[in-house]
Amino acid sequence: MQIRRAGVIGLSTALVLSRRKDIQVTIVSKHMPGDYDIEYASPWAGANYWPVGKPGSKLQQFEKATWPELERICREVPEAGVHFQDSRIYGRTKDAGSATGQWFEELCKEDAWFKDVAPNFRVLPKSELPPDCDTGTAFTSVCINTAVYLPWILGQCVKNGVVVKRGVLSHVSEAGAYHPSGRADVVVNCTGLMASKLGGVMDSKVYPGRGQIVLIRSEPGTMYTTSGTDDGPDEATYIMQRAVGGGTILGGCLQHGSWESQPDPNLAQRIMQRAIDLCPSLAPKTGKVNELSIIRHGVGLRPMRPGGPRVEIEEIGGTWVVHEYGHAGYGYQSGWGSSWEAERLVLQVLGRLDGPKAKL
Fold first, then answer.
1. What is the pLDDT of residues 330-351, one digit of tens each?
2. Which terminus of the chain is more exposed, N or C, with fewer CB under 10 A?
3. What is the pTM of this model?
């Protein structure tokens, strides 16, 4: 079995498959945990659990299935870099139809489907809303330190015997050559945004959803977001404190179709000031941006895909491929559910639950 790409989706799927004694897994990826590159979205994520999948969608199913595993890891595996955080979602009616308004549509509903999934869900009274917001909810979520979580998953894979290799592929059929045996029975394609450029796949539906963040040292203790801003239809405000000293992410934006890798300093100023306005404890002395202690600025390109993630089987030039990409900005909150679906498809391709060891 060959896993193509070591982002959160690829790593999670490799770990799920590696728990089966009848499957030998190899990961091949251009980028690995610890790398920071514009092609590699996972390190730049917040990352947290703010469900956005529409009821009945594949993404919604994955998000619902993923929460119990995130909760378990948070309670039982402190070294994974996941912690619980109170979360507040603020919605503005005037954001309906905007890029960020559509992004947050499900998240802002007072009768959200996840009210029976995320703990302590409640609708916020008007007295607890910012002046420009019409609706709001609160619930217990998690926030993940990606710099700890990704290496932890990779370490668990290696513990289970997964072989890990660096490689750059021009065509999906080349993946099998990286397996120690020289071939793979199934390739799991977790290439994210690069699915738009990988030979044999070339999915024209996949495009970048550019996000820009500022990582600071403050600890607000609560995660916040609003459905939009008055600074533009593709800008939003969110604040996420990562676990185990990972700093706090301030964002952001959703710029459809932009491949720009460098932070926009003007956008960064807006991001920071909006965060302070929403959470004054970030800069309690002056309420100004220059009070913040900045760790880094960053840009990540979400692997957007109309209709949501592609998780399905395809035979490409004699190679069986299980596609698993297009999770936009929701890889962490849908990753385990997606991985279990990919596992089901892999077993379907192999045509058995038992038998000789399969090579992936």
1. 999 999 999 999 999 999 999 8
2. N
3. 0.94
